[in-house]
Amino acid sequence: MNEEYDVIVLGTGLTECILSGIMSVNGKKVLHMDRNPYYGGESASITPLEDLYKRFKIPGAPPASMGRGRDWNVDLIPKFLMANGLMGLFEKRRFRKFLVYVANFDEKDPRTFEGIDPMKTAMRDVYKKFDLGQDVIDFTGHALALYRTDDYLDQPCCETINRIKLYSESLARYGKSPYLYPLYGLGELPQGFARLSAIYGGTYMLNKPIEEIIVQNGKVIGVKSEGEVARCKQLICDPSYVQDRVEKVGQVLRVICILSHPIKNTNDANSCQIIIPQNQVNRKSDIYVCMISSAHNVAAQGKYIAIVSTTVETKEPEKEIRPALELLEPIEQKFVSISDLLVPKDLGTESQIFISRAYDATTHFETTCDDIKDIYKRMTGSEFDFEEMKRKKNDIYGED
């Protein structure tokens, strides 16, 4: 422990593990610690099922009808997307024309613009050009382009078109869904990036109590654990390690539901994602429903896990998600949690303490990736370049 590192990382959430791997690949000497004995932090996968009952203080043991406890790997904060939408015949034709336009769009080729200036024309006017209805606009903006508000409607359309194009190209590549979900749950992802960090010399310590983050003259110089001090030049951590440096900007409601059936009207899909746009339920925030099943090795045979999440807007949070819960009935067991949405009070450039944002209600990686790229830029002064990272990896191992 009594060593000096370029970067110390506290917490093994996905954000922290990805940044740990990136910094290690970049040649930094990294020490990664977590007070917990498991990976994932607040985004961990809980197994066996008995542990989920204990975590949510549900009395008694899971009923025998739920199968073996060790067959369950329940994500506390799922992150993936597969959207379903319904529309009429004529609406489908107009939407198809819009999607063909998106597929052919190339911001470097004015011949593909069809009278639209991608840097000036608002997205609202693009929808109007293709005569798309409000329901389709809601679906496109929130389920395909992954916007959380409608502010984008009055912004230049280029970014939105490229977001939809990315979705379409991903769908074409994988067939039924443009998204991937790891077998055994998202807990596998932090471990994967932890292994990447270790390959490049990173040191990992789980079940390590953090006694103090040492700051001198306003700048971090190390971390104290079990009486020993590890020195560092920069620190990455989740909000739980620096509660005096974060502020609450809202709350997120999540309800984990165990089902014995797939969600109705999804063609008995073993996984799906439903986004209920804010306009459809007179809210300021979208409601997300994510369903996975035994097909992903996260539940017992014949069982399904559906997780509903949204940003809290009233003093009766569970009433806010009633439209989503009605889609899931009958529900065998519910696990309800409300967590604070914490964000850093400053950018960390002076203290060199870089704090991740708490996970929001979305069930896709868009905001998490934005946070990772933002922290990377503040730490290094440059934009994250994935291709450059691959080149560094190849330079060391000579891989193609």
TrEMBL record:
Protein name per Swiss-Prot or TrEMBL: Rab GDP dissociation inhibitor
Biological role stated in the UniProt entry: GDP-dissociation inhibitor preventing the GDP to GTP exchange of most Rab proteins. By keeping these small GTPases in their inactive GDP-bound form regulates intracellular membrane trafficking. Negatively regulates protein transport to the cilium and ciliogenesis through the inhibition of RAB8A.
UniProt family annotation: Belongs to the Rab GDI family.
GO molecular function, one term: GTPase activator activity
Subcellular location: Cytoplasm; Golgi apparatus, trans-Golgi network; Membrane
Record GO biological process: protein transport; small GTPase-mediated signal transduction; vesicle-mediated transport
Protein's organism: Lynx canadensis
Assembly information from the UniProt record: Interacts with RHOH. Interacts with the GDP-bound inactive forms of RAB3A, RAB3B, RAB3C, RAB5A, RAB5B, RAB5C, RAB8A, RAB8B, RAB10, RAB12, RAB35, and RAB43; binds RAB3D to a lesser extent. Interacts with DZIP1; this interaction negatively regulates the interaction of GDI2 with GDP-bound RAB8A.
Membrane topology: Peripheral membrane protein
A Pfam family of this chain: GDI
PANTHER family: RAB GDP DISSOCIATION INHIBITOR BETA, RAB GDP-DISSOCIATION INHIBITOR
Keywords from the named record: Acetylation, Cytoplasm, Golgi apparatus, GTPase activation, Membrane, Phosphoprotein
This protein's GO CC annotations: Golgi apparatus; membrane
InterPro entries in UniProt: FAD/NAD-bd_sf (IPR036188), GDP_dissociation_inhibitor (IPR018203), RabGDI (IPR000806)
